[in-house]
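Structure, all two chains, one model.
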Amino acid sequence: MRRVDTLLRFATTSLILVGLVILYSTSSARGSDPHFFLKRQLTWLLLFGVPSFYFVSVLDYRIWRRLCWPMLLVSALLLALVLIPGIGIRVKGSARWLGFGPFRIQPSEFAKIAIIAGMAAYMSRYGRQGGQFLKGLVYPIAGLGIFAVLLVLEPDYGATLIIGVIGVAIMFAGGTRIAYLVVLMVSGLGAFGTLILQNPNRLGRVKAFLFPELYPDQAYHLTQSLYAFYLGGVTGGGLGNSMQKRFYLPEAHTDFIFAIIAEELGLLASSAVLLLFVLYFVCGMLISFRAPDSFGRLLGFGITLMVGLQAVVNIAVVTGLAPTKGLALPFISYGGSNLISSLILTGILISISKASVPNGDLSSLAKAKDRLRYC
Amino acid sequence: MNDRGMLFRFCLMGFLMLSVSTVLGVRLAMLHLGPHEARLEQIERMHRFKQDLLGRRGTIVDGSGTTSLLALDMAADHVVADPQVVLEADALIPTASRLAELLDLEVDAVAVKLHQPGRRYTRISMFVPRELSRAISEENLTGVFMRPAHLRYYPHGALACHVLGFVNHEGVGSAGVEQHYDRYLRGRPGVIQGRLDALRREIYTERVVADPGDPGHKIELTIDQHIQLVVERELDALLSSSRSKAAWAIVQDIRTGEILAMASRPAYDLNDFRHSTADQRLNRAIGVNFEPGSSLKPAAFAAALNEGIVTPETVFHAENGSWLYKGRPLRDVSAQGYLTVTEGLQRSSNILTAKMSLMLGNDRLYQYFRDFGLGQPLGIDLPGEEAGIFHPPERWYGISPTRIPIGQGIATTALQLLTVQSTIANDGYRMRPYVVRRILTADGEVVMENQPSVVARVIRSDTAATMRELLHQSTLDFGTGRRAVFAGMKVAGKTGTAQKPGPGGYSNTDYIASFAGFFPADDPVIAMVIVADEPRPVTGGGRVAAPVFAAIGEEVSRYLGLYGDRSSSRMQMVQSSQDVSGR
């Protein structure tokens, strides 16, 4: 297990370091203090991120089985609190943040942890009855629905989508009948489509994604992002030399930071970052499958998928394969809440890994492969 | 749900995610390796910018040795606005009223300019001095911007306006020296190339080309602002006392041909040339042909003397004031009997001049007049010089040989009239007139220098000396030019009173009064011509123009130190300083 462990730590550390370097380069073009974003991100990382990672990684992951329920309650309360005008901080029309002195946190990031833990706890207990309509489908979906509604009210569609998909994926992995899930997916897509069609802003984004030439204004983000990749070439324009970060590409330090990596360091770096996320994903999947119990398995699976899915969707958006939505690139995008929650999730993965069968190496997977051969 | 099922579902999800990652990897490679050079060039063009810097125009300074600034570029701004932004901010009324107040404009006019929905650019006011435009910038009016410009400024307003000229709004010299020497004055515009961020702000670390351009050359005139001022002041006095329609004058250094002053009335303020009329802008000193009348006679006298046909003592009979030639009477103002040549010039006898010229013959008269520069542009370095009107003998009428020598049937410019005098004063050498002494770079290096140059040798030195004495005589006692004399100075010169030709013959009421001469008569330095157009009711050149000659002459003589011992004079100092500078 040590090797997988080490690889996971390596992937995480590398991603964080790449993130800091690029964040420094990106944010230097903005504002009066070129170090502003770097300082804040480092503060989050060193003050909260790394300590909570180590704390969580030495904790027995089984504690989350009991802790998840109060966490879900607190998360729901915080998400509701955000919606109250005067308490929640509204930026660009979305109320997503709560303020604590100089810091702002995004409760949805911590709700993600609670929901993964909660779904894993629920499905590990009732997974064997996954075939039942109520216990396998209705209850967990109702639980997810509460959070989805709260997030849609903010509104934060990116987080809604991610939490919805992760929740359903845990249900899928946990044993809910596939036919239910198909029905669920179809109706979910229908609901999502309705949401999009209702709002001209969202509709515009989708149209701009589909026909960028016809909607140059709405497609501005995307076009500028693609320019960054074009300019990057194989080796990039050199660290610090991005032109697109100079306000051509909005959100260059947050959602579109991957484009800056591509422009400054080229295909070599952008594909390396993608590979690091694949490495993270593979390690996460190995760790979770070798977890000693089904709670650990589902918890690890949810965590791995959460990080992997965010990365995949973010990169798809930045490269123009998915319509624009506000999703951060884990470990790399500027933003303390996302960084901390990603580190906590990684810490839980490590603690699952520690609890798995010692000296097991890859044997359990080999066993699993054997079993697979028979089916 | 068993382990197998779970493994299957795990692997399915893993497979899905890895497939998506592969797709992303392919997409990355496509994006990074995809674009053509042309596409990259297009993207990079979006980042680049090029800005032309205004070339600073050279200054013009006077030739007095104090090199006072007569024309210079001052930093200014065009105040412009984006009407759409103003309207969207719903700030039409406050913006218009504030701008109108600061710029001293009509509120309505500004409001009309700003109320152009859909327009993105309108000029509110051009060439606003930097102090004022800065004050406007500090108001932070939405949608109001400044565009840098150079304002051509003439510190003395109308002084020497016809010599200096002005620069139009495109920065092109459009009159006077500004026009003639435009290619020297015009600076070389600079350029900045670099890159912009998306807010269209320059990224200073990315600056590629920074060429500040070159300022234009400095021009040093021969015009002396002190003499110019005196001339203009006296012309204004003349205009009001004689009620003339117009008046003009030139002062020249006869030894070099340098024009020390050139003025024309009516005039205009160079700083407000837009509101001037064509009549005001006309440089009459070189741009108006007129029949000079008697002030041209010295040319005929010089010709006859130079050819040895007459001497100052030769006697003619002046026919008691009326002489019939080819059936047409020629009259003198005062009836005279026998007159010497000296007396004939002194009393400005038309009949004596005509008889003398007939002895000279048409061809020789024509040749001398041409040598004096009549009927051709003299090549002064200013735009708009007229050639005069002087036909060759083949085209003359029967009585022309008796009329042309007395300044009828021939038109000259004031500069040509002056040149006859300065040629006589300069021992018979005709010099090319010019108003620009030299052109220097901003660093003081001489680019071009106008050297005094002899265009023609018209008469011999002894003839010139005789003529100087004759012309001096005509300012004495009973001479027509006696009012041109000023205290303590021997003056030489000739008056002219010409009826203006019009439809149906010469007018009995409209005259051109002139006086052309030089001083000191025995060792001339300065030649000067004064012309008044339609003075009323007094019309004679002796009464109208000669006193102005005296008034200017006196001040100029004192300023240049022409009285008494001239070895310590200012003129000498100016001259010697020029010698040092490599003449």
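Chain A has 13 helices and three strands.
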